[in-house]
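DM from R.C. (forwarded with permission)

"hey, sorry to bug you on a friday — could you get me a structure for this? deadline for the figure draft is monday and I only need the backbone to look sensible"
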Amino acid sequence: MRLEDIKRTLAVLLAAVITLSFSGCGELAPLFAELPASDVMKWETDDPIQQSNDMLGLDKMKQVANKDGLTLFVNEVTTEIAVKSKDGTVWFSNPQNRLDMNESLIGRYSSPLL
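My reply, with the result:
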């Protein structure tokens, strides 16, 4: 029995050493190639859209998936999404009253990166 315990302990230690030795291998390798800001600045963009109330709502979205009683919709202009459950409950990725919000509320719902 004592020999089995030693073998098991050595196997666990060997596995730990191998795992730890490989865990640092990818530390310096980037997952994605870095993209210089000068390249990003060259990208062409469309003119910004001016959102209006007639762009909002589930009826302005396209159904793109349906599974297990959930339906996914996407607005191809604003890229917002909505999920509708089989009981009729709808969840929107963006507040539907955002055009009526005052400035202090808009800041809470805006990206800190933009």
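R.C.: lifesaver. The chain has three helices and four strands.
me: no worries. The mean pLDDT is 79.
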